[in-house]
Amino acid sequence: xxxxxxxxxxxLRVSTVIYALFQKFLMLAGLVFVAGLIGLQTGNFGWLDxxxxxxxxxxxxxxxxxxxxxxxxxxxxxxxxxxASLNPRMRGALDYVxxxxxxxTEALQPIFATAQATAHELRLDPLLIIAVxxxxxxxxxxxxxxxxxxxxxxxxxxxHQDKLIEVADQASFLDPVTNVLxxxxxxxxxxxxxxGLEDGLQQFGGAINDPERRYSSKVLAxxxxxxxxxxxxxxx
Length: 236
Known about the structure:
The protein is mainly alpha-helical. The chain is built from eight helices and no strands.
């Protein structure tokens, strides 16, 4: 179908820091400019020199604060987001997804590592998350629906801003790692709220009133194909 690539989450976090530092720089530059105008009017430049003397240390403080905020709050991949970090089920599923959806294993590794870690935390089956991604976006991290659902798990930003970390913005929903983290939380909430897997899936897919439960059937069928791919890999 297509080959997908995306920026690594670390690069996205660096961009956030650079943008924040640029804002701080403009603010400090504005202070120096205003101080210069006052000095020209009064003929007293002594306090301008004092302001300049603190700018380097202030800038260093800004850098340290921003980097610390990113390190503490930004979503992180598991320590080793490689095939070796995946359990046998996820490795078998990754092989199937790579071939079936024509996506490189390198692009899939952080997605699968995040799904595995998040599923463990939320007590979900990681293959369920992978199945939802397959149905929702076909592993295209830039997919967007007509109603504004975005990313791998087709999360609607206006409904789930509360699930983003503090330093993230609207564009973060297109970050594969963030999208899986948020989407898995939404899926878990839907399952808990509606008392079961099938009804939870129907709610997640916006089809709670469908008596034929076509959405949940589609996801569970995809999950079964993943399970079968895992079994085939183990028997070869």
